[in-house]
Design brief:
Two copies of one chain form a homodimer.
Chain A: H1 30-39, E1 41-45, E2 50-52, E3 60-66, E4 69-75, E5 79-86, E6 91-92, E7 95-96, E8 99-100, E9 103-106, E10 110-116, H2 117-126, H3 128-153, H4 157-171, E11 179-181, H5 186-193, H6 197-209, E12 213-215, E13 220-223, H7 226-234
Antiparallel strand pairs in A: 1-10, 2-9, 3-6, 3-10, 4-5, 4-9, 7-8, 11-13, 12-13
Helix pairs in contact in A: 2-3, 4-6, 4-7, 5-6
Chain A binds a DNA duplex (30 and 30 nucleotides) through helix 6.
DNA sequence: CGGGCGGTTGAGTCTCTTCAACAAATGTGG
DNA sequence: CCACATTTGTTGAAGAGACTCAACCGCCCG
């Protein structure tokens, strides 16, 4: 915890266009971060803590500073579907008609900038450049959700898990990408990949037995053979 | 074809907040539509025509005026995954780093407003209210993609198809919602729901045999028993 | 030290996919 | 206007894979 993101909110997103305003495209300027910091409050969440529930009235939008957060929806019969996993620099708090569209929960201990929605809307109306950055981030969320849907479309369990590991490797680079941390339970992986938690376990074992990865305890894997992992992800 | 959307582009989206600027939240103002019309061009696409391919350089963004468009990505081994079905009032042309993230294809004969991206970006920078509307629409796309992921998470084939029908009923209201048009081939439904096209056909037959729907030819269904359909969608 | 939680592994059932044949609809050329 | 070819949609039978139920193991915490 307590990384450099403490000073002011930061947003991280792949650019949409090549060089939209001639700017770098993604990160906020110092002034923008300062403007956000004036209306935002840094909030701490414990492991497993619920941040808001689906259907709650929209009050704040969040940008994650540290830790991992999951947003989820309940599958009319109590089955939890995780719609997104969020990492530092990501935003959450998507709403529809003034109510949160998902529930949000801290997967690990986490810190997030809590931004009052009304004040944010006013700020965006006054600063089109800042608003552009949020638009780019929203479109980043579209791509992310579509990638997730593609993962769910994979029929093989091993393919989904392999793809999930590659996804995590992009999002959480550690040790030059060889070590992939799994800072969540098997149940969370299951609810994100649409598999039963037994299938998650079996698929990880299968990738281990195939020599693609090595388990570094239950919450980290070392990628031994990236080519084989990619091959397993394709099918 | 040739509906009222001809005069100028229109955008349709559920609002994000309750009443963001005190405005209606979603539709464009007459001035905004006019401003867009000045830089946009209304383009016609034939049934099945490719609009752009995944990876093509980003040149235009589109808002659909009439017809149905699908965006899709190829599943490294030639398997097509449809990421979204688009209806009049929807936008497409999502890009990453200056290249289209999906391919786009006209599912039916279609008309779309073709907006040069650079000019749109300039316009948005000058008009924060318009930019807000695009932000709201982008967040609408996030929700839509998440709903799609939830559909793919349903394990039963019948559940997915029932949910797909309810989805179409919301998007394409016809005859007061009793008749649901299916203006696409079984193959498109299969690629959107992640099923084989045989399973699509079987699931529709199962819903028919269960008395939930009645087939009105291959490209329309009448919902006989909405409660039973919803029940089938849940499981 | 004991209990509970999270994770792994095993056996049987169910269902979706695949392969295949068939029927219906569409469109073309004579 | 009809015959035919091609595409699109439906239905059937067999196989593969994930889910469920269940037992077992390791670990953390009380």
């Amino acid at each position: 915890m307590s990384e450099k993101g403490d000073a002011a909110p930061e947003i991280r997103a792949r650019p949409f266009g090549n060089a939209p305003h001639g700017a770098a495209g993604v990160a906020l300027s110092a002034e923008q971060r300062h403007a956000l910091a004036r209306i935002a409050r840094l909030v701490h969440f414990a492991h497993g803590q619920t941040i808001y529930l689906q259907g709650d009235p929209l009050t704040h939008v969040y940008t994650l500073a540290a830790g991992v957060v999951a947003t989820y929806r309940m599958n009319d019969e109590g089955v939890r579907h995780i719609t997104a996993l969020l990492f530092p620099g990501d935003c959450f708090g998507v709403a529809e008609a003034g109510r949160y569209f998902n529930a949000a929960e801290a997967v690990t201990e986490a810190e997030a900038w809590q931004i009052p929605f009304r004040e944010l809307a006013a700020l965006l109306e006054a600063d089109p450049r800042l608003e552009w950055n949020f638009l780019v981030k929203a479109l980043d969320g579209v791509r992310q959700a579509q990638r997730h849907a593609i993962l769910l479309d994979r029929h093989g369990a091993v393919q989904r898990i392999a793809l999930f590991l590659e996804y995590l490797r992009r999002e959480m680079p550690a040790n030059g990408g060889r070590i992939v941390p799994l800072p969540m339970s098997r149940s969370v992986i299951a609810d994100y990949t649409g598999l039963s938690l037994e299938s998650v376990s079996r698929s990880l074992s299968a990738l281990r037995d195939a020599g693609a990865i090595r388990m570094e305890g239950p919450h980290a894997v070392e990628v031994l053979d990236p080519a084989r992992l990619r091959e397993a992800a394709e099918g």
